[in-house]
Design goal:
Elements: H1 8-21, H2 28-39, H3 46-54, H4 58-67, E1 79-84, H5 87-91, H6 94-103, E2 117-122, E3 134-136, E4 139-141, H7 146-153
Parallel strand pairs: 1-2
Antiparallel strand pairs: 1-3, 3-4
Length: 157
Amino acid sequence: MTSSGTDVSVESVVRRVAAAHRAERGALLPVLHAVQAELGCVPQEAVPVLADEFNLSRADVHGVVTFYHDFRREPAGRTTVRICRAEACQALGAERLLGHVRESGLTPGETTADGAVTVEQVFCLGNCALGPSVEANGRLHGRVTPERLGAILNGAV
């Protein structure tokens, strides 16, 4: 830990990534993406370091991290399932998929206590013709039924 209580490994990652993007205009977003790629999330400890690196207030950095749904404050589960909620998928049954998630004891936007699954809602996966669509660990699935979603959540697909 540093004197400010920041974990040295988080601080070193953030400072290294920030240095790599320092010359870019509007570098905060690319840095946040890079930090999340390396650490699995943008931890709270990264906020003051980013504020220092970019001469921003902590509130400004916190606002960016919490505004964009792509940034996580905690690491995602081993399986990340993203359910499309855009209009086409809604018309084709996305709400049934969310109902199945809730009936399975999962909460959209959260990770299970054992760290196995994170379920997220997104607003377009770009697979509108094959809705409702789900992305699981980067793999896109179309025409997903609640039963097929159950298989995806259990790792069978």
